[in-house]
Every structure is written in C-alpha cells, then in structure tokens.
Amidophosphoribosyltransferase
Amino acid sequence: MGGFFGTVSKTSCVTDLFYGTDYNSHLGTKRGGLATYSKEKGFIRSIHNLESTYFRTKFEGELDKFKGNAGIGIISDTDAQPIIINSHLGRFAIITVAKIVNIQQLEDELLSQNMHFAELSSSNTNQTELIALLIIQGRNFVEGVENVFKHIKGSCSMLILTEDGSIIAARDQWGRTPVVIGKKDGAYAATSESSSFPNLDYEIEKYLGPGEIVRMYDDHIEQLRKPNEDMQICSFLWVYYGFPTSCYEGKNVEEVRFTSGLKMGQTDESEVDCACGIPDSGVGMALGYAEGKGVPYHRAISKYTPTWPRSFTPSNQEMRSLVAKMKLIPNRAMLQGKRLLFCDDSIVRGTQLRDNVKILYDYGAKEVHMRIACPPLIYACPFVGFSASKNALELITRRIIQELEGDENKNLEKYATTGSPEYEKMVSIIAERFGLSSLKFNTLETLIEAIGLPKCKVCTHCFDGSSHF
C-alpha cells in the first residue's frame, strides 16, 4: 500500500511534513521520502530504505537540510519516491499511492515514443516516474492527470509539488484510495490518513471525491477538476489498513470496526466467557462484539510493538511466519480454563492462525472461537496494493477450493456466497485446519451496513469478485 502527506504553510512546513508523513507509517515498510521547495534552495529531496528500520530514525537527523513552506512526503511499499521532473510544465516533485496493472504495456508504449526511464527500482520501471511521464504529455497538470486516469488500469492518487510553492492533490478516478484535505490557521494539508491531522492542529476540511483535483495554497484551495459521480473506495481500508482514528468519506475506522463487531455479537449464538481482539485491527471489532454479546472484553494477547512489523507485509513466507509468531504474546493468566472468542480483521494466508491457536491451547484455553470482521477473501486485488500476495493461491480460501474442486478458479461465486453448501464446507475446513472450536465471518451485508455507504460506492471485489476498471 502506501500513504502520503503534503502541506503548504505561511511558515516553514518541515516539522508538519515530518510528523504528518510519519503518521502514515503503518501503511508501508519499504521506502520513505520527503521533498520540499523554496525559491532560495529549489527542490530538496531525500529517500531512505525503511525495510530494516522506521521512518523517524532515517529522517530525524537530516531535517535541518529541508527548507521551504511547501513539502510532500511518502511512505511507500513500491518505488523510491518522490521523483523530481523538469518538463514543459516546469519543475515538479511527485509522489503516488498507486498500483498499475498494465505497467508493462504502458512502458512499451512510452519507449516506442522515444521516451526513457531513469529511476529504475530493482531494475524495474519506477511506476511513479511512469505516471510523471504520462502527466507531462498534457498541456497542463489537469490534462496530464486525466491522461494518467485514461491510460492506467489499477489506481493512482498523487501529490505534485510545483515551483510556485503550491501542491496539486489528485485522487484516483474511482476513489479507491482516499485523499483528505486539512486546514489550520496559515496552512493546508493533504493526506491519505486523517489521523495525521489532530496532533498537528489541522481540522478536516474536505474529502476529495473520485478523480477530483485541487491546488493547495497556504490560505486557500482551488478546485481544478470536479469529482466523478461513481466511486469504488476500498472496503479493506476500514477492515484492516486504516488507523483507528482515521476517517474516510466521513466514516471513522474504529467506529466501523466496533459496529461490525456489535452486529455480529447481537446475533451470534456462541457460548463464551469473554471476547478478545487480535491486536491491532481486531480490537475495535472485539470491543463491539463484547458489547453486543454481553460478555466482558479481556486482553488475552498483547502485541509487542517496538520491533515487530505487520505479518501481512513481508513477501517471504518464512519471515511472515516468524513475525506472526513473535509479535503477539499470549497471557497465560487470562487464557487458562476459559472459553475464548477472538476477533480479527481477516484471514489471508492463515499465517497468524496456525501458530497462535496452538499456543492458546498450550496455555490452557478451554475453547478457541474466531470471528472475522469481513467475508472470506476469495479474489486477489487488481486495484490497490493492499496485499503482498502475488497470486490467488496465496489465499487460504483458494488453496482449499483447489483441493475441493481440482481447480482454484472453479465455482468461486458459490464459495463467495454466505450460507451456500460450498461456503459452509470451506469455512468448516479452515476451522478444522486450525483447531478452532468455531469460525464465523461477517457477511458482506453487515460490513457494508457498518461502513454506512451505499454498496455501489464501495469496492468489495476481494469478497465477491465485482469489478470496475
């Protein structure tokens, strides 16, 4: 995935830029980058590898070198960013949160037009540079961004820092990823996560609509392109990716998780002693479940945060398994002799379940029930970079479908339909494979109801295969 932050201020932007970007750190682990602009110094840029450490440790010591009242920052799980370009549109720095499915096709087309790529990332084309090359084919920035929308398959939101000290913010044409505008006295900011705002004294000014483009100055924003009517914001933002205090489309992440748990707890017939959340993104759901079910919330597992990242992120399966095991520490005193119900955001590969359920029983748990905030993940995502998985068979559901059908692509619609014989069989196999006393997933209807947006505005492709390119 990835997250960005940009700000234009009447005074130096560096402190806000540093902390605002850092508040997006939960969205990526590979690269971090900052760029500022001032008339005296021009563009100043720095990019660091974050795979072995955190954003703050890489950038804290060099903040004095950044100058200016306008800057952009990125936490990226893809390429080295920002990219700085000199073109007929002037010099500009650009950062993107993007996934380009047809990048090879676009690369071939641009090379055939005698264009070149200079910012190779691990010998591959840097997709932010490719987006910049599509932008400079326009007569102005708006036309250039629309050219990006016209050509890419996938998604792309971006911030562009220009030579006049303003920032152009553009949201993906389907609104798959969010862009939130914040305001305080003497400054405007744009970010992927509104959780960047409270401690920096910004208030949410507006949520950019799908395909909307605005230009931010220190005292006002100017709309350059009106939003599209249709939207497909990623539902997984509320399920997993979002920080609890963030809001998208006016819908708070923690509130959605709490509501989904509450609704499940009100209807679930399980007999348990307490509800527990798998840290971090399962906690909100478990608190809601406990209230809906009328059982206490207990913290039977704690997350060790100083050194262990998310198990979802590493691309190496052995490392994912190690991270999943080491970052969560069970509390024997809260487990022994109890019928425990755990809430979690999702089951992707089953990395965490396999080791952790066994430990819970070893530590004296009488029963281990699992409740999942979203429906089973059946389809790999072609729209946003939400997964380190390279193919559908990395999903535990698709591996089970392959075992049952002899073909991982057979009868997917039936397996995605809650309550169908195929669905029930798949869920029972997952429960049995991990030694769970019971396993239930939230329905798609409950998830959409908790989010509070019309189903047609929310992308649920990973659950039901619905597609909008």
Summary: The longest helix spans residues 253-267. The chain has two domains: 2-231, 251-464.
